[in-house]
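Review form for a predicted model. The reviewer records the input and the model, then writes brief findings.
Reviewer: anonymous (R2)
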Amino acid sequence: MRKLSQKIELTANILIIVVAVLLVGVIVQKYFFPPKQPERMQPSVGTKVNLPEVNLSAQPKTLILVLQKDCHFCTESAAFYKRLLESTHDKNVKLVAVLPNTLEEGKAYLDKLGIANLEVKQSSMDNLQTSGTPTLILTNDKGEVTNFWIGKLPADKEQEVINQLIS
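Model under review:
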């Protein structure tokens, strides 16, 4: 009986040590070697935009608004998009909204926001080298990215976008 008790005690001690080593390993891995966050894609200045269904050479500047109907930042920025439309009216600037949703969903979403006078296209965000919305991509008449803005913009950045469009 004593031998059995010793074997059980030895087995329990070995299991405690194994569990402790595994626990320490998990803690070390979690705190000292955290998993890499996937890099967010973003456009690069000077690269060409891959949007064949849009004539980017029609105007000296084109502002591509990459939006998504389920993006609350896109919805919150609706007033800014209306200002963009007003600011670029009668200017040599083309505005295009690109959504990964279907054209019908995209147009319905923009109509709901009160942004009706905007060219709407459907494309994956990968085609535009972006992984987040809203993203604004400014291109020249060669279709090359000259600037871009990602996320909901503060007032000074909104004004920066407008200034670059009308200059």
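Findings: The chain is about 40% helix and 15% strand.
Further findings: Residues 1-35 form one domain.
Recommendation: see findings above.
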